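Methods, example record. To illustrate the input and output format used throughout this study, we show the complete record for NitT/TauT family transport system ATP-binding protein. The sequence lines were provided to the predictor; the line carrying structure tokens was produced by it.
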Amino acid sequence: MNYIHTACEKDCAWFLHEIGTLAPLMLMLSIVMPKSALLSPAPLAGVVQPVRIGFIPLADCAPLLVAKEKELFRKHGVKVELSCEVGWATIREKLLYGQIDAAHAIAGLALAMRLGLSTPPCRVVAPFVFNLNGDAITLSRDLWNRGVRDAVTLKKLIRSTTSRRLTFGMVSRYAAHHFLLRRWLISGGIDPNTEVRIVALPPTQMAANLAAGLIDGYCVGEPWNSVAVDKGVGWIAATSEDLSPKHPEKVLLMNEVFIEQHGDQAHAIREALRESCAFCDVSENRPEVVRILADSGYFTNGEDILQRSLIGPFDLGVGKNIEASKFHIFHRYEANETTSERGRWLVDEFIAHGLILPSQRNEASEALRECWNSDALPFPAPQAAAKKTSKTNKRSKSALA
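The corresponding predicted structure is encoded as:
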């Protein structure tokens, strides 16, 4: 299937040319990310492995870390190894080539991989939604000082400034972040294809690039909006709740081959995460959730930063706070279900932002029915599951969850 080459691809090339080399960015990355995120070893042939789940250290990976900390995977009979990764492209490639079995991933990656956008087609399945909402748009302090308060005033600045095009970051063309950023720009009368540059960066690099003046703003998940606010280099112009309330954000993404070969383990992972999501969505539990994330070693910015979106108040960086009860929705509003409405939202956004043609809607909808499917994990019969675990499923005889 062919896809449309957007201005984003050219602008990513421009961005890499402007900074001259990736080495400075990798140096910054080594400062903010644990070494385990930079070097994730591939499974060894013939060696028994636990189920490997890839993730990026963002506030909305909380259900994954909470399930690990509270031994919910063990409770449901599956052993898991978490693999901290650098960016969504790494998650995609490791799923494609079987280096991880499942992932906490952006929702749009399910449809993109199924359609073969940017990669060979891969039969992945998203049987579970981690959360709704969770993103925000952060702009530089320089833009604030030049009079920008929203997308409309940004448009006025663009009209009066001809020296250079402004550059904005997002995490992937297939992410809600990209869709929200483009919709926010369009709401102010800005053409995202011609009047600004949009480049893809890993979430962990957003605040550092904003501080360095390499980008003028970005759309990303927490805690990287709050990091920019805390360092005084950015302010928050809009959130998911402002732009597309209750949009699907992250999903559990699995290769169909893994599900076919280890269906009982796939089901156990989903049920452990469902229990964890319910725990994470109770406001009284949020302080413990923050502590688990802060103590995990994956976050280096402290509990105060994590509290802003998970507990609140959420500091916008302009002398104003907002309440945070709907910033992350982990279980309320049937958040964990792969509903047809949420699936249609993805297809509509892919078409609206030029990732596929309108004429390809039927093909995309069919691909969505195959990958956006909670029924892909039927409840295993207890006896069959026990037999498979004891005789054929050696994956479970491995490292502790």
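Annotations derived from this record:
DSSP finds 20 helices and twelve strands in the chain.
The CA atoms of residues 46 and 287 lie 42 Å apart.
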